[in-house]
C-alpha cells in the first residue's frame, strides 16, 4: 500500500497512520459524548422537577424588577452582592433544575449547566447585573423556544383530532355507542349528519355529502351514495348514513395517518443531526476555552478578575444556543404546513430529500393524467360491441386498475348481466388473465397477447388499445383514453422554476399516447411501454447517474407504483386516500390528486432546507464570533449576552417564514 502514491499523498498517509492511535484512544470518550444525547432523544422530554409551580416566568419578572430597584438603592460594600444575590437565586433555580434533569438523563455537559456556571462566574467577578441578566435572558430564550415547539406540536396534533372518540353500532336491539377499537369488519355503523366517520367502510344506506378536508386537505365536499367507499376522519355533512365497516380500527385511514404523522418527528433531517453534532462539539469546546482563559491564563499572568470575565463570555455564548439551532423546529413547522394540505410525510428527512431533488420522475397514470379512463371506441371481431364489452367487463370484475373501471362502466351502461370472474391474475403493466365460466379471458395490451401467442389486430388509430381474447380466440380491442390534468403544464413549469432540472415521464402505456403528452408538457425524458420491472430499471439507471448531492423524487399513484417508488430517494404517492399500498410504500402521501400539492411540497421543502442552512451558519458562526470577540476583550460580557439573545431570537423567528 502506498507504493504508487505521490509524495504528498504518502505524507498524508503517514500522518493518518500516526494520528490513528490517537483517534482510537479518543473513541470511547467520543462515543460517550455521542451516545448520551441519543438516549435523551429517545426518552420523552419530562420535567419531573417542578421548581416554580406553573408560572416560572413570574420569578423572572420579579428578578428583573429587583435588578432595576437595586441599581437605585444607596448601598455599597458587602451590601451590593448581598442585594444582588436575591434576584440571582430566584433566577438560577429553574436553570439548576433543568441542568439536574439533564445530568440525571446522562447528558453531563448541558446548556443549563453552563448557564449556571456562567452566572456564578459573572457574580464572582463582580458583574452582578450581568449575572442576573444572563439568567433572565437565557430563560427567555428557552421559554420562547419551548412555546414555539409546543405551538407547532399543537398544530400537528390537529391530525390527531381526526381520530374518532366513539362509533354508533347498529344492532338488533338498537343503536349502541361503542369504542371504535371494538368494532369489527362487517359491522353496521350509523353516522349522523355533522359527525366524523369513525372507521373505513362502504355506505349501505343513505345519500349525503362528505367533507374530506381533514384527511385530504381538499376543500370541496363530494356527494356519495349507497356503494361508495368512505374513510375515517372525513366528516359526514348533510344527512345520516349507515355504513358497513371494511377494516378494523387499527388499520383505518385516520389511525394510520395519525401514526405516520406522529412517527415523522423520529426521523430527523441530516441538517438537524449535523447541528446536534456541531453543538456536541461546541459546548465542551466553550467549556474548555472558559477553563483555559479563566483558570490557566491567570495562573501565569494573574489578573483573575479580568480573565474570569473573558472566560464567562465563552460560557455565555454556549447558554444562548438553541436546540439544534432551531432546525428541528423549522422542520416541524414545515410538516404541519403540509399536513394542513393533506400531505403527510413519514419523516422530516423526506422534506430534506425533496429539497435537494434535481430530477423528478412521474409515473404517468394518475399523476399528470387524471387516472380516470373512459372507453372511446370498441372494435369487435366476429361479435357485437356489446358482447366484447361484456366479456371484458367480466374479466375485469375485480381489478383496481383505472382501465378496468372504465370498461366496467361502459359495460354497465348496456344493461346486460355481466358475469364475474372466478379466478383472476393481474399481470402488472400488461393486463388481466381471468377465468369466467370456465374460459380463460385475456384483457390487456399487445405485450400480454404476445406472451400468450395470440394474434391480434393492430389498431388503426393511435391510442391505448385493450385487446381481448377468449381461450385462444381473438375477440377485438377496446380503445380507452385518459385526460391530462388541467393544470399539469403550469404545475410542471413551477417545478422547473423551483430548480427541478430534469423531468422524466415513465409509463406502461403505448408510445403513441405518451409522446404527445411528454412533448406538450416539456418532459426531458420519456420511456413508454414499460413493464413495472422496466420502470424499476429506469429508476435505478437514473439513480446511478445522478449528481452526488442531488436526489431523485418519484411521483406515482398510490395504487400500482409502490414497489418502483422504493428505488428512488423519495417516493410521493398521489391520491393516497384509502390506498393501502401508498401507506405502505410511499415516503410522502398526497391524499388527493391535486398536482399543485407536489409543487407546494417542493417549495416548502426548499424553503425549510434553506432556512436550515441559514440557522446552522448563523448559529454556529455567530456563536464562534461572539466567543472570539469576547475572549479577546473586544466586547463585554453584557454585549455578549445581548447579542447572543438576539441571535437565538433570530433563529427562532426564522420558523415564521415557513408557511
Ligand atoms: P401506467 O404506466 O400508465 O400506470 P400500467 O403499468 O398500470 O400503466 O399499465 C400499463 C398498460 O398495461 C396499460 O396501458 C394497459 O394497456 C395494460 N393494463 C394494465 N392493467 C390492465 C388492466 N387491468 N386491464 C387492461 N389493461 C391493463
Ligand atoms: Mg400505473
3D structure, described in words:
With 659 residues, the chain is α+β, with helices and mostly antiparallel strands. Among the domains are: 100 residues, Calcium-transporting ATPase, cytoplasmic transduction domain A, CATH 2.70.150; 148 residues, 3-Layer(aba) Sandwich (Rossmann fold); 113 residues, Calcium-transporting ATPase, cytoplasmic domain N, CATH 3.40.1110.10. The chain has 21 helices and 22 strands. A hairpin with a 3-residue loop joins strand 13 and strand 14. Helix 11 packs across helix 20 and helix 15 packs parallel to helix 20. The protein is elongated and about 115 Å long. The N terminus is likely disordered. The site of magnesium ion has 5 residues, from loops.
